[in-house]
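Sequence and structure are no longer studied apart. As an example, we show below a sequence and the tokens encoding its fold:
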Amino acid sequence: MKPIIHTVHDSRTGTWQYIIACPNTKEAAIIDPVLDIDTATFAISTESADSLLDIASSNGYNIRYLLETHAHADHLSAAYYLQQTLQAAGKPKAPICIGNKIRTVQDIFAKKYDIPSEELDNAFDRLFETNEEFSIGTVTLQVLHLPGHTPDHIGYLIKDEGVITGDSIFNPDVGSARCDFPGGDARALYKSMKTLLDLPSHYKLYTGHDYPPANTDGQGKSRQPLPCVTVGEQRERNKHAKLDSTEEEFVQWRSERDQGLSEPRLIHQALQVNARGGRMPKRTHNGKVFFEFLVAVPDRLMG
């Protein structure tokens, strides 16, 4: 049974969010939901997440799962907010799920941001094994391990339809994601992209982000963000991993490219929240949450 797939773009972070629903049972899953944050005031709000709930409500969906592809560094996950909001409305608890390699990522960022272990131990309700299958109504999904961008990265394969890829591959004119986060590996990412390109040519690859390059229409305008293209289109046109690409060329280019990239603007907030499964740090003051930030300063400024 082919699912219904709703594609919802968050323009502020370039993120694609997805709702996958079974047309028979109306069971559904939300994938990679976004919390809104004002980078000037650091105020967090829920408009994007609420829009996903509106779609679910208007279609009569029962949200069965809240799914993450990885611990994102460019947006805050709304999974915990959605879970709590649904439960407050009398709905059954929708488990927050991610791949089991998240433990590696949590260990890295627990040290970096001094996150107490008790805030990580039960951050996720279910950790998927590689190749594990689960169902949304009569729709079966299989978990693919697609490391490279991050070590915990997974995708969700829907037979005869395609893959929710997260950041393991981008649209052909964007190509690939950076690999310079802790645990990232350009060689692993190339192999993950090739794994996706070995799928049947009609399968759709639903990407986690889209950043349309300028002037793609020949008239000085960017194209509109696209949630997916087919495997066949990716094989022919992906500028980093198409059929005539080589692993060594990709690794060299990706490594050089990543050295010149600045940090994502929300990286510190995102990693501290997303390692906790979308929960905020417990340390607060006057109703506001403390985040840990590491700032490089000259030695002469250190007391």
